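Need residues for this backbone.
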């Protein structure tokens, strides 16, 4: 029998979980699990990712670009300057003006605008 050449085994890189993605800014890259994100806040030419363990990451990008990127993870716009992870909402209180207030699992209270209330449809009926 002729001898077969055996290719050396090279460990393939471990795949990234479906809920993980990279936050990149300049030379810094950070792997983040979308479930850890509490909110994303506009900060001028930057956005600040606020994570559940009180860590924050400032990235040079627009809130609009991050809104499109994070939509599959159920992170939605609730105000002109803020995105919120729907999985982190523990209470929703409507105001007479049509605006609303959210309480997150971190204890933080976030104001929401009636303009973005449609993003919260189904929150109170167990669909979130």
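Answer:
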């Amino acid at each position: 029998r002729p001898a077969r050449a055996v290719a050396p085994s090279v460990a393939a890189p471990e795949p990234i979980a479906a809920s993980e993605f990279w936050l990149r800014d300049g030379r810094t890259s950070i792997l983040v699990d979308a479930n850890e994100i509490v909110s994303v806040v506009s900060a001028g030419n930057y956005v600040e990712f606020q994570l559940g363990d009180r860590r924050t990451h400032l990235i040079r990008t627009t809130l609009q670009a991050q809104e499109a990127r994070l939509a599959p993870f159920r992170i939605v716009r609730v105000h002109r300057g803020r995105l919120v992870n729907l999985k982190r909402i523990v209470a929703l209180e409507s105001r007479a003006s049509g605006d609303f207030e959210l309480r997150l699992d971190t204890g933080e209270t976030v104001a929401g605008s009636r303009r973005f209330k449609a993003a919260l449809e189904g929150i109170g009926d167990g669909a979130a």
